[in-house]
Amino acid sequence: KVWSKTGRRHIMLLSSGIKYEFAMASHLRLMGLASGIGEALGNSVSLRMQHASSSAEKTYELMKGILKKGNAVPDAILITHGVARAAIIRALEEHGLSVPGDVSIVATDALHAPEGHGPEGHATTVFEPALPLSRLLMEMLFERINQKGNPLPGKFLPSKIICGNSTRPEENRLLGNPTL
Predict the structure, then answer these.
(1) Are 14 and 83 in contact (CB under 8 A)?
(2) pTM for this structure?
(3) What is the pLDDT of residues 49-106, one digit of tens each?
(4) Which of 78, 83, 112, 162 would you label with 18, given CA atoms 20 to 30 Å apart?
(5) Are 54 and 17 in contact (CB under 8 A)?
(6) Concatenated DSSP letters of 26-74
């Protein structure tokens, strides 16, 4: 809802090209995320899902192609771990766009600590704690086995949002976090 309050209307979800991201379960998870984003933002936004490579150069070429095609330029990008954020920023800047002025970028990361995102600065990151996530997945697996494979309700695992310089200060304030 932060993006709708700050005027972001064209949102892109870039998921990595890592093999497990193409699994059906991961695809359904991303569809659920997209559905949640769409529900939170209402009908006044466009949402585009795109698979990106974990290669920086391929991600750069993908983003250049998206910007060149004359499609609606995203003004907010949510990227999963494995997607080269610096390559996205490079393509945006070469297209005359600034981060976070024209485009906000939020990364998700379950594998790395939220600090130290490289020379381009700290990205706003949804930090998914890997250990609690692993425990929850194992509990759900055992519960599914005990239920003889019957469907289970979804589970919610709170994530920590660490605000950085890839989102505007007003977005960071709405998220309840100061800029790093």
Answers:
(1) yes
(2) 0.73
(3) 777 777 889 889 989 998 987 677 899 898 876 677 888 999 999 999 999 999 999 8
(4) 162
(5) yes
(6) HHHHHHHHHHHHHHHHGGG-EEEEEE--SSHHHHHHHHHHHHHTTPPPP
